[in-house]
From TrEMBL:
<dbReference type="InterPro" id="IPR032675">
    <property type="entry name" value="LRR_dom_sf"/>
</dbReference>
<keyword id="KW-0732">Signal</keyword>
<keyword id="KW-0677">Repeat</keyword>
<dbReference type="InterPro" id="IPR026906">
    <property type="entry name" value="LRR_5"/>
</dbReference>
<keyword id="KW-0433">Leucine-rich repeat</keyword>
<dbReference type="GO" id="GO:0006954">
    <property type="term" value="P:inflammatory response"/>
</dbReference>
<dbReference type="InterPro" id="IPR035897">
    <property type="entry name" value="Toll_tir_struct_dom_sf"/>
</dbReference>
<dbReference type="GO" id="GO:0045087">
    <property type="term" value="P:innate immune response"/>
</dbReference>
<dbReference type="Pfam" id="PF13306">
    <property type="entry name" value="LRR_5"/>
</dbReference>
<keyword id="KW-0395">Inflammatory response</keyword>
<keyword id="KW-0325">Glycoprotein</keyword>
<dbReference type="GO" id="GO:0002224">
    <property type="term" value="P:toll-like receptor signaling pathway"/>
</dbReference>
<feature type="signal peptide">
    <location>
        <begin position="1"/>
        <end position="24"/>
    </location>
</feature>
<dbReference type="GO" id="GO:0005886">
    <property type="term" value="C:plasma membrane"/>
</dbReference>
<dbReference type="Pfam" id="PF01582">
    <property type="entry name" value="TIR"/>
</dbReference>
<keyword id="KW-0391">Immunity</keyword>
<dbReference type="InterPro" id="IPR000157">
    <property type="entry name" value="TIR_dom"/>
</dbReference>
């Protein structure tokens, strides 16, 4: 035995060593998501030391870290992305990143760095993206970037005091750099000689927002450049342009010269002609030149096909403005204060495919667009258009995308979209449309996306969308829709996504015939409406009966406040449903087999409902569930998981409930759990939670989110402490001693246990509860304290409406009694049995509200047991029974405790609203007023009706 005991100790010792080596998912200041440690916004001053070394990313954005030093990132051999933006980092020790051999992206934007010393990036041989903008860098060591041989993108913007020669130190060690961004660094001159003389791979150069007065390229450093941005200088300056050889920028296809001034139109032509053979896209926003001159110069370049001309003062577009732009295929005239457009303004644009007139002051659709036969995309959003005419889009037979959002359109005409056979996307959201007027009956055979959200629609009429056979996405959200006529979605056989949320839809509008035509619907959002069904089960016409293809149903946040359970066949027909949102629908009960119609359900959200208890049978039909959200449901435990058979569950979110203990059995019931969120619960800090604490600290599979912030609520001496700080040494079991005792006494214990189980189990259970009652009675007598409450009310949650609307107002407000209600007066974090016992023995009386639901409730049964034990033990008149329903004697036979009490105790029966109600309340007052004399000596109450037994 001694050798065996030593072996056990050795095994325990090795297990303890392993617990230090293997680190779990529980992090004090971070959380893990998709193998990325998210530590952003936690006011950290140091890099955390408990991050898993296997993560592929670390996000430390928006903290208070002042310094990076050697050892901060040891052992992160798999790390590919590190974000340190928006901190207060002023220095980085040489060798800090030396172990990050796999790092590809480093973000150091918005810090306080002033110097980049030699060796600062040592070890980052695979780094491709470095973002170090908006620091205070004034000095770069000659060899600071020596290790970054594979760097492709560098954002050095916002370092306003860095001299140009410092930039040359960067570029000489980055031969594969393709994207260089140096916006707003107070660069006044730009010379290609500042760059390496050898050819580079640079494709993008952004030096915008700089006060450049001299721009010169005299070397071949930019012969592969395709994107050049030198626009938006911070103030009015004249730029000298010096590129003697066009071959040095022969590949530039996109040029941004917004707000650039080069001293005269001839100089501007010299600038543009530099890119004469290659320029494809030209951005000239907020130019100070005569716009017509600029446009004509630009359009004379044969290759130019895209013009961005935003933010000009152009209230009227003349007919000759684009006369030379015959090769242009895209024009952007956003924010140009356009009020009118000459009818022939776009006649010469024979190749134009995209026209953007966003955010101007147009009041009607311009007649000029009818001349653009080639137009495919038209953006008229954010104007002041009030009406649409039948010929507004005449001749636009090639149009595929039309945006009219954020105008003032109030109605549509039947003919408005005629002759648009290729239109695929139509945006009409955020207007004032109150009537569709059959605008979608026959004219849009190719339309796939129709957005009508945030309008003033109230009724969707029959055959409203009958002419949209190809429609896939339809958004009618945030209107005032209260009526969906039968057949309103007829013809939409290809519709996949329907958004009806935030309307005024009621249950009498929504039935099985409403969606009968949507045979291919995959996503349906009907949340935030006024849908409420009576709890009659089953329904005659389930609303989703014909939606067998539906995969995602959003039914959350129905806007009514009266609690009611859902019908058991509410989801009938949804045989392929995988995601369901039942959050905040004000239900107090979910029928056990409501999910029997959704066998493929993978994700379920029942958060923000006052369920209090969940039956394991609820999940029997959905064994493939992997995501479950039940936050703010007033649940007292997760014990239902033990029998729920959710072995595939990977994600569980149960915030803001009343969990006190997470047992080992609960943990073992979900073996595939990857993410557990139990924030804001009332944890008990004792050995009952030892298994949960060990899981949190040591599991490499399950991440318990924010576990180090879990606080103790019970016992009182531990309240306010952190759960994971609990010392578990006292919870360790001496396995050697247990083995010795169990081996010696096993036969005897087994025989005694069998004997007790077969012959004395009921007597022992009764004796135990009598002992508990006697102990609490003795304790209360010793204290000699008056009762805290006049009566403890024991009731079932389904009778909560009667208790709060009838009983509580009459007893507390009218008669002045002080009641104890479990929703209101139970202590959070305290075991429920102790709460019940303290409430009963802390009240003069116990008032039981009896109904059939009450008799079937496990917790109500326990409350009844404790109250009856007190009655039999003290022999005092401490128990009052109020029957809300007529329950025949035969129905009480399974409830032995209730029958025994009724033989010795008078009861009251609720007569309902009527003449007998006043007498009922008077008799109940007498029952509460009676002294605590012995039960057999007290005068019986006069009641209406006869005894059940």
């Amino acid at each position: 035995m001694g050798h065996e005991y030593q072996k056990i100790l050795i095994c325990l010792f090795l297990l303890n060593i392993q617990s230090f080596v293997v680190q779990g998912f529980a992090l004090r200041n971070c959380r893990i998501s998709l193998n990325v440690a998210l530590c952003d916004g936690n006011k950290l001053t140091l890099v955390p030391t408990d991050i898993l070394p296997t993560v592929s990313g670390i996000d430390l954005t928006s903290n208070h870290i002042f310094k990076l030093q050697v050892g901060n990132f040891n052992n992160f051999t798999n790390l590919t992305e590190l974000k340190l933006a928006n901190n207060k980092i002023s220095s980085i020790e040489t060798g800090t990143f030396s172990t990050l051999s796999s790092l590809q992206k480093l973000v150091l934007n918005w810090n306080a760095l002033t110097r980049l010393e030699n060796g600062v990036f040592d070890g980052l041989g695979k780094l491709t993206d470095l973002l170090i903008s908006n620091n205070r860098i004034t000095r770069v060591g000659p060899d600071a970037f020596k290790s970054l041989q594979n760097l492709k993108l560098l954002d050095f913007s916002g370092n306003k005091d860095c001299e140009p020669e410092q930039i040359s130190f960067i570029l000489k060690h980055t031969p594969h750099l393709t994207d260089l961004i140096m916006k707003s660094i107070r660069l006044s001159t730009f010379r290609s000689s500042q760059f390496a003389n050898k050819s580079t791979e640079l494709r993008l150069l952004d030096i915008s927002d700089n006060p450049i007065t001299f721009f010169q390229i005299t070397t071949n450093a930019f012969r592969n450049l395709t994107w050049l941005n030198i626009g938006n200088p911070p103030r009015k300056l004249t730029m000298i342009w010096d590129i003697p050889d066009k071959a040095m920028v022969a590949q530039v296809a996109t040029l941004d010269i917004s707000r650039v001034w080069v001293n005269g139109s001839q100089k501007m032509w010299d600038l543009l002609s530099t890119f004469n053979t290659s320029l494809f896209s030209l951005r000239m926003n907020s130019m100070r030149y005569n716009l017509a001159t600029v446009i004509n110069k630009s359009c004379s370049i044969p290759a130019v096909s895209t013009l961005q001309l935003r933010q000009h003062n152009l209230p009227f577009i003349r007919s000759d403005l684009f006369s030379l732009c015959t090769n242009v295929i895209e024009i952007d005239l956003s924010r140009c204060v356009i009020k009118r457009i000459a009818n022939n303004s776009f006649t010469s644009l024979s190749k134009l495919k995209t026209l953007t007139l966003h955010r101007n002051k147009l009041t009607t659709v311009p007649y000029a667009i009818r001349n653009i036969w080639s137009l495919q995309k038209l953006d008229l959003s954010n104007n002041s258009i009030e009406t649409l005419g039948c010929h507004d889009f005449a001749n636009l037979t090639r149009l595929t995308h039309l945006s009219l959002k954020m105008n003032k359109i109030t109605t549509l005409q039947k003919c408005v979209f005629q002759n648009l056979p290729w239109l695929q996307t139509l945006n009409l959201q955020m207007n004032l449309i109150a009537d569709i007027n059959k605008a979608f009956h026959t004219s849009l055979p190719k339309l796939k996306t129709l957005r009508l959200f945030k309008n003033s629609l109230k009724t969707i009429k029959k055959d409203e969308f009958n002419g949209l056979p190809s429609l896939v996405n339809l958004s009618l959200a945030q209107n005032q829709i209260s009526t969906l006529e039968k057949g309103c979605f007829s013809g939409l056989t290809n519709l996949s996504n329907l958004q009806l949320d935030e309307n005024e839809i009621k249950s009498n509008t929504l039935d099985k015939d409403c969606f009968i035509d949507l045979v291919n619907l995959r996503i349906l959002n009907i949340g935030k409406n006024l849908i409420r069904y009576s709890p009659d089960s089953p329904m005659k016409n389930p609303p989703f009966l014909y939606l067998s293809s539906l995969e995602n149903l959003d039914y959350r946040s129905q806007r009514f406040r009266e609690r009611a359970p859902l019908p058991s066949n509410f989801l009938q027909g949804l045989t392929n449903l995988t995601k369901l949102d039942f959050g905040n629908i004000f239900t107090v009960d979910l029928p056990n087999y409501i999910f029997s119609h959704t066998p493929k359900l993978d994700s379920l959200d029942i958060s923000s409902n006052d369920l209090m208890d969940v039956s394991p049978d609820l999940f029997t039909p959905i064994p493939n569930l992997t995501k479950l959200r039940l936050s703010s449901t007033n649940l007292r435990s997760l014990d239902f998981l033990i029998k729920a058979n959710l072995r595939k569950l990977e994600f569980l979110q149960a915030r803001k409930n009343a969990f006190a203990v997470i047992t080992k059995e609960i943990i073992e019931s979900v073996p595939n759990l990857r993410y557990l969120d139990l924030q804001y619960n009332s944890f008990t800090c004792n050995c009952d939670n030892a298994a949960f604490i060990n899981l949190t600290k040591n599991s490499n599979q399950t991440q318990v989110f924010d576990a180090y912030e879990f606080q103790c609520y019970y016992p009182a001496n531990e309240k306010g402490k952190r759960l994971l700080d609990l010392n578990l040494d006292d919870c360790v079991i001496d396995y050697g001693f247990i083995c010795f005792i169990s081996t010696t006494c096993s036969h005897l214990v087994f025989m005694i246990a069998v004997f007790i189980y077969h012959f004395m189990r009921f007597q022992i259970a009764y004796a135990y509860y009598m002992l508990v009652a006697w102990l609490f009675d003795t304790k209360n007598k010793n204290r000699k304290a008056s009762n805290q409450y006049d009566a403890f009310v024991s009731y079932n949650v389904h009778d909560e409406a009667w208790v709060y609307r009838k009983l509580v107002p009459h007893l507390e407000k009218n008669q002045g009694w002080k009641l104890c209600l479990h929703h209101r007066d139970f202590e959070p974090g305290k075991p429920i049995v102790e709460n019940i016992t303290d409430a009963i023995y802390g009240s003069r009386k116990t008032l039981c509200v009896i109904s059939r639901r009450y008799l079937q409730s496990e917790w109500c049964s326990r409350e009844m047991q404790v109250a009856s034990f007190r009655l039999f033990d003290e022999r005092k008149d401490v128990l009052i029974l109020v029957f809300l329903e007529d329950i025949p004697s035969a129905h009480l036979s399974p409830y032995y405790r209730m029958r025994k009490v009724l033989r010795r105790q008078t009861y009251l029966r609720w007569p309902g609203i009527g003449p007998g109600e006043a007498l009922f309340w008077e008799k109940l007052r007498k029952a509460l007023t009676s002294t605590e004399s012995k039960a057999e000596d007290r005068l019986p109450l006069e009641i209406s009706g006869t005894r059940l037994l």
